[in-house]
Design goal:
The structure holds two protein chains of two kinds. Chain A has 15 helices and no strands. By secondary structure, chain A is mainly α. Chain A has two domains: 218 residues, no CATH class; 52 residues. Chain A is flat, with a radius of gyration of 22 Å. Chain B contains eleven helices and 14 strands. Chain B folds into two domains: 220 residues, P-loop containing nucleotide triphosphate hydrolases (Rossmann fold), CATH 3.40.50; 69 residues, 2-Layer Sandwich (Alpha-Beta Plaits). In chain B, strand 12 and strand 13 form a beta hairpin. By secondary structure, chain B is of the alpha/beta class. Classes of the chains: A mainly alpha, B alpha/beta. At the A-B interface, helix 1 and helix 6 of A face helix 2 and helix 3 of B.
Chain lengths: 287, 315
């Protein structure tokens, strides 16, 4: 894992990728810092952290598009997968390399609050908490990018799809507000989910029996839940989509609240996408 | 050393490798021969654990690729058809990285890297970026990568493809040299290459093993048709008539006239009859001197044709 980590980290700075990421990130961060802190003489640094999250949409695809897709295009995955490394080790090495570049950039931006502290008092712990949230949010976005990069051997496609996925998460809270919350639509949505899972199983395994069994069990669970607690499906769509609402959890950090549950949420979110990445690579070897 | 047990690989409806069984003994150099798309690369990818077999398994030194993949992968050095090189690294950085992922001891790493770079003669390009190297050098870096950690088994997929004749000879003698210490499986679609290097040959076609023998036996078995090419000084019609009347000659035909006053003919003998001596005496008695006579090697296509039709007759 360490060898892959070191190689990836070097590769970021042997190509323009690392510099583009850092440069763009620092530029945007600097502009916001100048306008909302320096020019207005405001010590409210945390508002910078909350307004620059949109920068992830552009820089995370730059950081992650190459990670897995370039390996399969250049056939270097043959070297990695026939070496005594585990797939998990390879994926983790790559993930941590991307996270390390991000962390390094974040450390540079720490200069801004330090500059502010020369001119007045700043809320140190609030800013530390804000940074933790910002870091976890970025790490979760990177795990999505890594996952998408493992699905294709074309960097451009990886970048565009990652951008779209992040954009979707970005507008998710806004979309959720417009969704129906009544019971019927909740049940319909649950049924659609079950059908989707069954169809996915069918297209990956071509086993009609297992797919039908999954669908039947799924509908059974829905019916069971409905009879046990009929209020369960009120607002079911909204609650399901809120699982993916990375930004909603981020608001807590911005208000200076540092609680355990969003931290666990972000780490779990990243872990799930890393696990999916490992599965995709393993599956490609079996198909 | 290596046991390939009933390995099958299916891609949807297409069967790439169909119940392949063979074993390779320690110290053997095995040649894997077959046309493009015969399943050579797929078989090699399965042995090295790059892809998984649909059915069957592979054992290396008793370790099963499915149960203990890391133990198997530690023992194999693989050079795929397209060497897996990182273009943004120098040769030295790359080999250093490969040593790390193969978990080579820090203490011995440097020395073994030097030894390998000497062996494949890439010491003079060690500081250069891989993307700037020529095809031949890239191929050698690919081979160096497989040698790192001196694994007991080497698997080389078409190691000489795309090289110039001088490099081909060098790589071949290098492989022979390596065969003293490693067990090697080598794939190729060039027959002379395999017979020059390998102790045993497996011919694979459409995912199935169609023949497995030493190169000598294989060519003996395959050249039993006994085809000879002759150049005889004499009139075309008489020479042809004389040859055709000879006992044991199945067929004879004129190939053309390349030297004035001579004729080139292709003679095909009956099974298991050596007609070279009778041919010589008959023509010399008639005072038509033979200027040259040589047996015609079967081309790879003909061998495949022959082997595959033979198999059909057996089954």
């Amino acid at each position: 894992m360490l060898a892959v980590f070191k190689r990836e980290l070097k590769a970021y700075f042997a190509s323009p990728t690392g510099y583009i990421f850092m440069g763009f990130f620092l530029l945007i961060c600097g502009i916001f810092f100048a306008f909302s802190n320096l020019l207005t003489a405001s010590p409210d640094y945390i508002s910078v952290l909350s307004s620059i999250t949109f920068v992830f949409l552009i820089v995370v695809p730059v950081l992650t598009m190459r990670l897995m897709s370039e390996e399969s295009r250049q056939k270097t995955d043959q070297l990695l997968l026939t070496s005594p490394l585990s797939v998990t080790g390879i994926v983790l090495g790559k993930y941590f390399a991307a996270v390390a570049v991000f962390l390094l950039t974040l450390l540079i931006t720490c200069l801004y609050p330090i500059i502010l502290s020369f001119f007045g008092t700043i809320a140190v712990w609030e800013i530390v908490g804000g940074y933790i949230g910002f870091f976890l949010l970025g790490a979760a976005f990177i795990s999505i990018g890594l996952f998408i990069s493992s699905l294709t051997d074309n960097q451009v496609i990886a970048a565009v799809v990652t951008f779209s996925a992040l954009l979707f998460i970005w507008i998710l809270d806004w979309v959720i507000q417009g969704l129906p919350t009544d019971r019927i639509s909740g049940i319909v949505f649950a049924c659609a989910l079950v059908v989707g899972v069954a169809a996915l199983v069918y297209f990956t395994t071509r086993n009609i029996f297992v797919s039908v069994a999954i669908a039947v069990v799924g509908f059974g669970i829905i019916a069971g839940v409905y009879f046990a607690n009929e209020y369960f499906f009120d607002g079911f769509i909204v609650r399901t989509l809120e699982w993916f609402s990375l930004l909603k959890r981020y608001e807590n950090f911005m208000m200076g609240i540092l609680s355990l549950s969003p931290i666990v949420y972000y780490i779990t979110f990243s872990a799930v996408f890393l696990f999916l990445t490992v599965r995709v690579i393993e599956k490609r070897r079996w198909s | 050393m290596i046991q390939v047990i009933d390995v099958t690989k299916r891609y949807g409806q297409h069967v790439a490798v169909d119940h392949v069984n063979f074993t390779v003994e320690k110290g053997e150099i095995l040649g894997f021969l077959g046309p493009n798309g015969a399943g050579k690369t797929t078989t090699m990818n399965i042995i090295t654990g790059y892809i998984s077999a649909t059915e069957g398994t592979v054992k290396v030194e008793g370790f099963d690729i499915l149960e203990e993949p890391e133990e198997v992968k530690k023992r194999i050095g693989y050079m795929p058809e397209f060497p897996p090189l990182y273009m943004d690294m120098t040769v030295q950085e790359y080999l250093d990285f490969v040593s790390d992922i193969k978990k080579i001891d820090r203490a011995t790493k440097k020395r073994s890297m030097e030894k390998i770079m000497d062996l494949v003669k890439i010491g003079d390009v060690r500081k250069r970026l891989i993307k700037n190297l020529s095809k031949g050098y890239k191929q050698r870096v690919g081979l160096a990568q497989a040698l790192i950690g001196t694994p007991p088994v080497l698997i080389l997929d078409e190691p000489t493809v795309g090289l110039d004749p001088k490099q081909i000879i060098e790589i071949r003698s290098l492989i022979k040299e390596l065969g003293k210490e490693h067990t090697i499986i080598l794939s190729s679609h060039i027959l002379p290459e395999v017979s020059a290097v390998c102790g045993r040959v497996i011919i694979i076609n459409k995912g199935k093993i169609v023949a497995s023998d030493t190169p000598e036996n294989l060519s003996k078995r395959l050249s039993s048709a006994g085809r000879l090419s002759l150049r005889v000084a004499g009139p075309e019609k008489q020479v042809l008539k004389l040859v055709r009347e000879l006992e044991g000659v199945k067929n004879a035909e004129v190939q053309g006239v390349k030297e004035p006053g001579t004729v080139d003919i292709l003679v095909e003998a009956e099974m298991d009859i050596d007609i070279r001596r009778p041919l010589f005496y008959a023509l010399s008695r008639a005072e038509y001197p033979i200027l040259y006579m040589k047996s015609v090697d079967l081309t790879l296509e003909e061998i495949f044709l022959q082997v595959t039709t033979e198999e059909r007759e057996v089954s």
